[in-house]
Amino acid sequence: MADIDWPLLSLCVGVSVAVGLLIYHGVAGYYHLRYYTLRRDEPQLWKCQPKRFLTPKQHRTAVLLGSANMTLGGVLSGAVIYLIARGMETPIFYDVADYGWVYVIASTLGLFVLMDAIAYYVHRLLHVRFLFRALHRHHHKYVATSPYVVTALHPLELVLLQAATLAPVFFIPFHAASIGAVLVYVLIFNIVDHSGVRLTSSLPWQGPSMYHDDHHAHFHVNFGQHLMIWDRLHGTLRVPGRTYGRNIFGGKGAPQPKGKRIVEEFNGY
């Protein structure tokens, strides 16, 4: 323990935790104030699920659990940053001249796509019956999402998601700024996609918030994070004419009962 640089470790962990909590509460707080506080009386105009709201207890739990998990994630990230600062070998580089601008830009885009793919497959794994009931069901208690729900999940799930998402940076050269930029983007848009607010993006690759809200409303479908390509590729994108629910696993739903027509709103993606 004597060789630990406590001031440096405290700085790395402190900054990492502070930045994460600032983004979490800043973005989530903005959407909560703008819609859930100032426009609460007109949910039909903005809410993905106008008839569903979290109870006050669920909201408090989401804020506390989400904040605790953001702190845990910040501690883990800060510890890794500390180890890198103390000389742990990684392919991460800091000078653009090492690889050139073309590589930096291409690798940044590649990192985003790779992290998105990893998020899809890990998320789909968490919807296997055993793992869903052991871990992921805690996140799905929030059928009606809100911006604070994004990290309201089992701490072990957070560790698994964080480890899987960051794994590529230990094997492939990426500029440090690229890693930071992609992680910030992922966090901000995950908060937006959990907001429960009916939103679309001017970014052509970013799906509408209804895409992920439908995941919470219908459970085992729409596993993607930002890009919908993985759901389209594997046939796990929600489609009309199929039945979904808590106990219908597999991601493709089930045929609707013969002789019955289920009327449901579907906006398409």
Q: How many whole angstroms does the radius of gyration measure?
A: 20 Å
Helix content: 40-55%
Oligomer: single chain
Provide the structure class.
mainly alpha
Order of helices and strands: HHHHHHHHEE
The biggest beta sheet is recorded as: 2 strands, antiparallel
Beta-strand content estimate:
under 5%
From the spread of the alpha carbons, the general shape counts as globular
- Uncertain segments of ≥5 residues (pLDDT<50)? none
User: In total, how many beta strands?
Assistant: 2
Please list the strands of the largest sheet in the order they lie side by side.
Answer: 1-2
Overall domain count: 1
- How many alpha or pi helices? 8
Averaged pLDDT, please? Answer: 96
From the N-terminal CA to the C-terminal CA, the straight-line distance is: 53 Å
Key traits:
single chain, 269 residues, mainly alpha, two-stranded antiparallel ribbon, 2 strands, globular
Structural overview:
By secondary structure, the chain is mostly helical. The chain has one domain. The protein is 52% helix and 1% strand. The chain contains eight helices and two strands. Strands 1-2 form a two-stranded antiparallel ribbon. Helix 1 runs antiparallel to helix 2, helix 1 runs parallel beside helix 6 and helix 3 crosses helix 6. It is globular, with a radius of gyration of 20 Å.
Topology readout:
Elements: H1 6-37, H2 56-85, H3 101-126, H4 129-134, H5 155-166, H6 176-193, H7 209-218, H8 229-234, E1 242-243, E2 254-255
Antiparallel strand pairs: 1-2
Helix pairs in contact: 1-2, 1-6, 3-5, 3-6
